[in-house]
Amino acid sequence: MALSATVLATQTNKLKEIYVSITPSNSPAGYVTGGDTLDLTALKNPSFLSEPFLSRTPISVGVMNEEMSGNFIGIVPGTALNNYKIKFYGPGGTELTAGNYPAAVTGGTLQLVIIASGGVN
Question: Which residues contact 90 (CB under 8 A, 6 or more apart)?
Fold first, then answer.
């Protein structure tokens, strides 16, 4: 797995919104065909924001901001918090091949929004 997810902000009312920055990396390994695993149990919370963690699968995970020089992603929902996938595509719409991420992806911006039920999650 070469994805790191860091919480940027949270908001909790009837729905919980968690804004997350995704950082693809070529260390220890690059992209895996079929999508890199996004483990929602491993969110990093360096700012100690309130309630960023989930105990059940969210209602939705969507793209808030992607600036990767024409590269884009697709999110494959998981059956559990630890097995979501992010598939990366090149500017022409073809999935990236297994191997190192292009510099446009590792140097780009990718932010997601996670929507979950509010209250005890």
Answer: 70, 71, 96, 102
DSSP H helices in the chain? 103-106
Closest CA to 33 of 81, 76, 92: 76
Q: Two tokens at 28?
A: 């220890």
AA letter at 52:
P
- Nearest C-alpha neighbor of 79 from the set 52, 51, 58, 62: 58
Mean pLDDT of the residues in the chain? 90
Domain that includes residue 24, residue range:
3-117
- Of 48, 33, 49, 23, give the one whose Cα is nearest residue 85: 33
0.90 exceeded by pTM: no
Domain count of the fold of the chain: 1
Contact indicator for 83, 37 with CB cutoff of 8 Å: yes
Which helix (H) or strand (E) is 47 found in, with range? none
